[in-house]
Hints:
Strand content: 15-25%
CATH class: Alpha Beta
Helix content: 25-40%
Number of domains: 1
Order of helices and strands: HHEHEHEHHEEEHEHEHEHH
Strand order of the largest sheet: 1-9-8-2-7-3-4
Low-confidence stretches: 265-272
Largest sheet: 7 strands, mixed
Oligomer: single chain
Amino acid sequence: MPIFKRNPFGHILFIKKWLIRIFGVVSHGRYRRFNSLQIEGSEIIRDLPETNVLFVSNHQTYFADVAAMLHVFNASLKGRVDTLKNVGYIWHPKLNIYYIAASETMKSGFLPKVFAYTGSISIDRTWRSAGKEVNRQVKMSDISNIKKALDDGWVITFPQGTTKPFRPIRRGTAHIIKTYKPVVIPIVIDGFRRSFDKKGLLIKKRNILQSMVIKPPMEIDYKNDTVEEIVKRIEIEIEQDPSFLKVIPAEEIEEQEKLNKLREWGVKNDPS
């Protein structure tokens, strides 16, 4: 690979590779030592096509969610099965993974600006800006950049557009799916909100059981399924449908806490 080879967005791949390596090594302990990331379905990653794949996920922190996915995707492609053991998988990362993020988030400080170089497709939110509600038109350049990223590789999106749970799915995601016909992989994450601060940069609490469930590709009739139908199915697949809001019996909560404790001990005794 020529040292100054660039991706379609003009980023030098040599620099991008080193940034992913550095961020990967630094952040590895956040999912293996300080906390435990339990992974399900990582084998699905290895069977995906090289391009035109869209990952849709619920969202809990600005950056830790994406970082965890980059870890899991690269570990799976290097033969790991539902584990991040041995961070050597990050030495030759997949360089055509992108993620959709709000422009104002990626410009909010030095670290976000550097992290953006690892694959951010920065877009202007149409519904919110600087903490205030707005109503503005979608920029066509944002749509064309998403298409460019899908043509080059994989794209991660958080279709609720917020880290708050059970918020509505943005219709723009369904329009992208109908227009560009990607393979759509749902992901459900949990535990990140309890582990990290809102930005996902600082560890808020240790020994939290985090989880990431990668589900099989969604079956979508790109021609006949309506935008509303796709939105509803995404909502269900990433477990953000109101039906998932239920009162959990105290006995179930107590049993879950016992399982968390057992897993905690397992993490402490599991050599990395």
